[in-house]
Design brief:
The protein has five helices and four strands; from the N terminus they run αααβαββαβ. With about 150 residues, the chain is α+β, with helices and mostly antiparallel strands. The chain has a four-stranded antiparallel sheet with strand order 2-3-1-4, covered by helices on one side. The radius of gyration is 20 Å and the shape is elongated.
Length: about 150
Amino acid sequence: MAVEPPVLDAIDRDILRELGRDGRATWQQLGPRVGLSPNAVAERVRRLERRGVIAGYGARVDPVALGRNLEALVLVRVIPGMPREPFEAFVVDHPAVDDCVHLTGPHDYVLRVHCHDTAQLDELLMAVKREVHVAETETRVVLRRIP
């Protein structure tokens, strides 16, 4: 039996958008942005947390501030029949890998990576092929992000 997703009204969506932009905003800051009093915003946020809509809060780290200026998307195809666990453990532990998703289609995964330079990207690609049963990678360097 499928669980029905929670119904969100326009104010809930505004609160989520504002918290996505600034997860450290106070109730006093959020209130005017969404047209509610600070107490009303606090109650709405607590309700969203209880319902699991807000799963947590965290910091967004700027990779460029860490000297990781080169962003790339890496499509990965694992050798057919090989276990996936070594690959998944490798990418979870690798400091250049920011995100990994399992896909449908001709590739098995896509990685979003931030590297210091092309030499570090090359090292990552060589290591993933050598160490964790990867048959093929296809890499796209990100030129810029669209806001």
